[in-house]
């Protein structure tokens, strides 16, 4: 049995949810397609497809095999074209995870240029508020902001992001502009649910210090965090790159610039111990270049 050919048959059947339609698309007898997939299942020792009179569906094992087979065939196609320089030769699925605010503020506005340059790449962009398990969840790479244990992953540093304290003009008009650290005790701090250490993390004469403040609002994601600040519900501490537009148009104002927190590291992580495909290399290089303007602006107040 030609396993590569059988994989291609399997993917076609799974995509069309039909042996008949797959056979027509591939110009092969239906019996031949069915027989080869049965042989594939026998060699694997699992059932990949549920067969009914109306449709064909993937089993749980079939779903796992489908994803791995799709990636394997894409890598084989890329291997056959690896010495070609034209962008059209780069193809396959690319799974990437990054924080939602990074995606919306820094990546999505420019992503069309990358996708137009490499139309054969099928990008799956995940935006999670947690550090995903890159290997277990099948990601090609992930962008992390902040200090995270790498857990055996390969890592590539991009730079650091400036972190600022900010509030809306409406909030400051109602509650006043804090002039000193002691003033923060009378102000509300909007909290992130995944921030275990509550309060402001401030850098004072090179030393890190955490100031506890009041506040009754806790939110679960960065975009809500920013929005809550813009509508005047409290003070936040966030990477400047994520609120640059709001600062520029006056919806937010930086406060206590002399007491910024330490800059946050920005890191690309990816599975270790295997060569990266060309499409992953290209995306990581593009993303690094795209973010350089944001991460290189770590400057004193």
Describe the 3D structure:
The chain is of the alpha/beta class and 301 residues long. The protein folds into three domains: 3-81, Orthogonal Bundle (Arc Repressor Mutant, subunit A); 87-152 and 270-292, D-Maltodextrin-Binding Protein, domain 2; 163-262, Periplasmic binding protein-like II (D-Maltodextrin-Binding Protein, domain 2, 3-Layer(aba) Sandwich). Helices cover 38% and strands 21% of the residues. The protein is built from nine helices and 14 strands. It has helices at 3-16, 19-26, 30-44, 60-80, 100-117, 169-175, 222-230, 244-248, 278-295; strands spanning 49-51, 56-58, 92-97, 121-126, 141-145, 154-161, 163-167, 191-192, 200-204, 207-211, 218-219, 236-239, 253-255, 264-270. The strands form five sheets. A five-stranded mixed beta sheet has the order 4-3-5-14-6. Strands 12-7-13 form a three-stranded antiparallel beta sheet. The protein has a two-stranded antiparallel sheet with strand order 1-2. Helix 1 (3-16) packs across helix 2. The protein is elongated, with a radius of gyration of 25 Å. It comes from Pluralibacter gergoviae. InterPro entries: LysR-type_TF_proteobact-type, LysR_HTH_N, LysR_subst-bd, WH-like_DNA-bd_sf, WH_DNA-bd_sf. Keywords: DNA-binding, Transcription, Transcription regulation.
Chart the SSEs and their pairings:
Blueprint: H1 3-16, H2 19-26, H3 30-44, E1 49-51, E2 56-58, H4 60-80, E3 92-97, H5 100-117, E4 121-126, E5 141-145, E6 154-161, E7 163-167, H6 169-175, E8 191-192, E9 200-204, E10 207-211, E11 218-219, H7 222-230, E12 236-239, H8 244-248, E13 253-255, E14 264-270, H9 278-295
Parallel strand pairs: 3-4, 3-5, 8-11
Antiparallel strand pairs: 1-2, 5-14, 6-14, 7-12, 7-13, 9-10
Helix pairs in contact: 1-2, 1-3, 1-4, 2-3, 5-9
